[in-house]
Design brief:
Layout: E1 3-8, H1 10-17, H2 21-30, E2 33-39, H3 46-55, E3 60-64, H4 76-87, E4 93-102, H5 111-130, E5 135-140, H6 143-153, E6 159-161, H7 168-176, E7 180-183, H8 193-201, E8 207-209, H9 231-241, H10 246-261
Parallel strand pairs: 1-2, 2-3, 3-4, 4-5, 5-6, 6-7, 7-8
Pfam family, one: TatD_DNase
Organism: Ursidibacter maritimus
Protein name: TatD family hydrolase
């Protein structure tokens, strides 16, 4: 079996643990994690994210994007800088990420900043369409609004709603649009009944695995930075929720991930 961690902030993890990207990749490979997607959150970490991939281009791909949590910092010129990076057509840049909408944090949910969030999401979806790239999407308390944007955007490569913790009905609407659902550490907690039930019922070909390293720690490692090598913990929880054999689950999700974000997708 082999695994693809489809959502990480590997640059932050390396800083938190004081480890090199190469060491993090070696640790991941020991856990059969063969591919890692590193995502950006603002212009300031575009260079670090790109450098992560260049440190090990066979195992690390990356995405560049402007995260809604940092909407106050983003400037219109940042969209131009994002497009300049995309114009280089680096084959390891395989996504626009991390982008989306945030309504769980009051500070970025004021009418003015919500409008700005929507404008930046729309602009980045248009870039994804222009450069034929999938998207890796943040969504908290904003599934209905995000769905509307995605339905209107009609992307060729679609993408994934990462760290999903909504209802089955919400997830199914995204899946019916052609989007994947990111399965993270939430399902390792028995109390997360709604998310666990949702992931158990969705089609297997709609699922991806992720750690959101260094965030979203898995059960048993609370309070510690999450890491790509702990993707196996989430995988084991997923297997406990599904009827399929573990080998089929692993192979299907690997293929889902490679088609959407892997080196073979460009």
């Amino acid at each position: 079996m082999k695994f693809f961690d489809t959502h990480t902030h590997l640059d932050y993890l390396a800083q938190d643990l004081n480890l090199s990207v190469s060491q993090l990749v070696e640790n991941a490979k020991k856990a059969q994690v063969e591919r890692i997607l590193v995502v950006a959150v603002f212009v300031k970490n575009f260079a670090e994210v790109t450098a992560c991939s260049r440190a090990d281009p066979q195992h690390i791909v990356y995405g560049l994007g402007l995260h809604p949590l940092y909407i106050e910092q983003h400037q219109q010129n940042d969209l131009d800088l994002l497009e300049q990076h995309l114009q280089t057509q680096d084959p390891n840049c395989t996504a626009i990420a991390e982008i989306g909408l945030e309504r769980a944090v009051a500070e970025v949910g004021t009418p003015e900043l919500w409008q700005k969030q929507c404008e930046f999401l729309d602009a980045q979806l248009q870039l994804a369409k222009r450069y034929d790239l999938p998207v890796n999407l943040h969504s908290r308390k904003s599934h209905e609004q995000l769905y509307t944007f995605l339905k209107q955007a009609k992307l060729n490569k679609t993408g994934v709603v990462h760290g999903f913790s909504g209802s089955y009905e919400q997830a199914k609407r995204f899946v019916d649009l052609g989007y994947k659902i990111g399965v993270g550490g939430t399902i390792t907690y028995q109390r997360a009944n709604k998310t666990r039930d949702t992931i158990a019922k969705l089609p297997l070909d709609a699922l991806l695995l992720e750690t959101d390293s260094p965030d979203m720690p898995v059960f048993g490692f609370q309070g510690q930075p999450n890491r790509p090598d702990r993707l196996r913990v989430t995988f084991e929880s997923l297997c406990s929720l599904r009827q399929e054999e573990p080998e089929l689950i692993a192979e299907t999700i690997w293929q889902n991930s490679e088609r959407l974000f892997g080196l073979g997708s460009r």
